[in-house]
Each structure stands twice: as C-alpha cells, then as structure tokens.
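A common beginner's mistake is to predict each chain separately and then try to dock the pieces by hand. The better habit, illustrated here, is to supply every component at once so that their relative placement is modeled jointly.
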Amino acid sequence: MSEISSAVDDKGLGATGRRDAWWVGPLLVVLGLSAFGVYSTWAAWTGNNYLLTAGGADYLSPFYSPDLKSLLGISVPFSYAFLILWVPLGFRASCYYYRKSYYRAFFLDPAACAVGEPKGRRYKGETAFPFILQNFHRYFFYLATIVLLFLWYDAGRAFFFADKLGQLHFGVGVGSIVMLLNVIALSGFSLGCNSLRHLTGGKLDCFSCSAAARTRYKLWGGVTFFNLRHMEWAWISLFSVGLTDLYIRLCCMGVLHDIRIF
Amino acid sequence: MSKRTFVVWRGNKDGGNFVEYPVEVEEGMVVLDAIHQIQRTSAPDLACRWNCKAAKCGSCSAEVNGKPRLMCKTRLDDLPGEEAITVKPLKSFPIIRDLVTDVSWNYTVNKKIPPFTPKKGADFIMQQSDVDRVQEFRKCIECFLCQNVCHVVREHNQKSHFFGPRFFIRVASLEMHPMDALNRIPQIKKEGGLGRCNITKCCTEVCPEEIHITDNGIIPLKERVVDQFFDPVQIVIRKITGADKPQPTE
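With all components supplied together, the output reads:
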C-alpha cells in the first residue's frame, strides 16, 4: 500500500479520470457537421447546377426546393437557396439530438460525461438568449414539414421524364432513386421529432381516457418507434441531403451521367 | 487467481490521497468485492457505503476509472486488465470520508416536490398503457449517479436553483400520472431550473436502471414547459378552454 497522489477534484477543460477515448465522439461530430456546413454553404452560395433537366429528367436539388424561382417568379440578388435553407437549418439546430451533439462537440458543455469544462463561464443553459429560442423547435418542425412535402413532390416528379414533345412518361433513373431515398431519410428524421412525439400524444396524461386519446396513443407509439433511432436518422438524412445535391450537381456539370434504368 | 492494483481515494472533507492496494482477483468479481477485500486484508478503516450488492439499493455509487458507476455492478473483467483500477468518491457531493459522500442535498430537493395529489373522485383502475410510461421512472433506485454526472451540478455547482435529472423524472412520473391533479410545470421551470439542462444525456448514459431519463422524462417536461410558457398557440387554446391544472400552493 502506497500513497500516489493527493488530488480528488478534477477541474478545468478536459480534466477527467476516464481512460477511454471519450474525445472520439465529439471529434466525429465536429468533422461531420463542419463538412456538411462547408459543403451546404458553398452549394447554396453558387446558385447554379441545382436542376437537372437533361434527358427529360426533372431532378431538383433539395437545397433549392421548393423551386421559389418558378413558384414566385421573383428575382433576388442572392441565391434562392438562402430563402429556403433557414427552415431546415433552424429545424436541425433546435433539434434535441443536434443540441446534444453541438453542445458537447462545439461548446464542450460538457465534451463528454464526467469530463471537465472550460473554467470561468457563467452557465445558464437554455434559460437565456440565444439558447432559450430552442423552445420554438416545434415551429421549425411545422415549417420543415412544409418543405418536406415539396421534397416528396420532387421525388415523385423525378420518376417522370419528358419526351421531345414535352409529354411526361414514367421512368426510373439513378437520380430518381437517390431522391426517393433522400426523402425517405428526411421523413424518418422528421417522424422521430421529439416535439412531434409530444404533440401527437406525449402531452396527454391519460392515454386510455377517450377514443381520441387512444388514437393519439397509437400515433405516439409510431413516433416513438422513429424517435428511438433519432440520432441515426439525423445523420443519415444529413448526409443524404448533401449527397443528393452532389449527385444532381455533378450530373449538371457533366461529371456524372444519370443512368436510366427503364 | 491473479493480482490487480486498486488505487482508492482515502481522506475526508479536508483532503486526502490516492492509495494503492493489491487485490487477489477471482473470476466474476465486481469492484465492490475488491473494496471489501481491501477492507478485510489491508485497510479495515476504509469507508464505503453499500447494502444489497445487487444493483437495487443504489448505495455503492462511486467513480471507477473516472466513470460514475455502481461498484456492485462493475465487473473487473470489463475494465482494462493491464491497468490499475481507480476508485474515488462521487465528485459532485461533499466528501464525508473515503468513498462516502454526503448526498443529503438530494433529499432536500425531493421535499420541495409536491407529492402525488389524486383528482377528486379519481378512479384507480388504470390501463396498462397509462401505467407503462410512469412505471419506467419508478425503476429509479436513487443511486444519484445521474445527479453526480450532470454537468449543471458537477461543473457549475448550481445546486441552489436546479433539481437535477433524478428529480426531473420524479416530477415527470407525477405529471404524466393520469390520476394526479397538480400542475408542477411552473415549479420545474422556475425553481427546478429545467431550462439549465442542455440535454447532453450524461444522466441517461450512467443510469444503472437504463431509464431513458432524457428522452422519456426531461424532453417531455421541456415540451410541457413550451406548452405553458412559450407556444403562443397553446397558451391561447388553454386560456379559451381553461384547461390548466391547479398549481401547488406554498
């Protein structure tokens, strides 16, 4: 038996008695969110190569949907994507899963469980500006659902190709499948939203007290099914959006050729 | 039988040291077994709180290799074999002696929460769907690992205006009870400091009962706070329908 140290109180950034690689998780989040942030900002900034019409296709990048340029017929001195992207950005930024991720990875608040934080900060959590605005997550959910409906329309439209006379025919291209998978991933993410879980049935105190409550209980169970994998849906849908834009962009640039399966 | 080295914190509120102890290890041993062996062979004065040794009493909480855990549920063969095993008291609570901390703050918080208050003429025949949700929260064994790991307590020491995850799920179990008549949401927002929780889920990670503290307790409470304090549509609907439950009186 021998004395080896006199410290019991770990204090300061990164101070911990943990011996596992606790820093890997936050590092991956920083890399993943940064990569997506840089790419999506660039893709939105360019304002071109977002609509593929070659071969009769109609593939619209999710960063530019709904197609406000056609819908509103207005001209803005910046990329149309910026009129849209604040909605999914707000939805994801206020999402309970992403909040956990970036509070840990970017704010180190805490970086990982039982790991020290930077000293000298006055912590208020989500009780003060700006993080008190996270309480409006459900409103971003409503807006994101409208965008999601447009994306479903776009995915359906991607299965119809125009001939030389402009008539539409059902067909399947690689892009059609890419857009369908993307909107399925986005729907999986939205259907697991914690605010939706609350609104469908979570806010009830009694699940069995009326026919309406029993129906809402079933809906709550359905949302809970998606909510259990909310983190996975969050990452899958984040990358599917970026990759869908990249696929359409590369096809528009002539780097890739969209293959018609039939 | 092999030997492993344990590094155990020894001391009291005025200070202390980590002390090394060799321990004879057998297959199936948990950290609490090793602590008992140290008490038996090397340090009979080593203080350690324990009771059931079955992960049900919540007494033997400590930090093993830096992670808050129940000592009776932490198998030695789950810890890296070549390294010494460090055991120290819970960081967030005042040390009494060695591995024993003063967790009385938790009991003070508990007293602030109004108990179950049945509705008038409540019918206590409940359906399984209603029981299931609150039953999860009642698995809590009050080991206070979640309170210890929560950074609002651990790093920011905001005990005076924060209830902590254990008591958020206690409030959740009462708020979601179909027969309860009170509205504790204003209390949990103001006095309980629910907004200070930034849902980083450490409480859920360390819970030995695997209660989904954040997803099933804290986030639903935050959404109820939004209903009552932030969502203008919900506020108007409640005003029109008069759907507020009464708040507890002082």
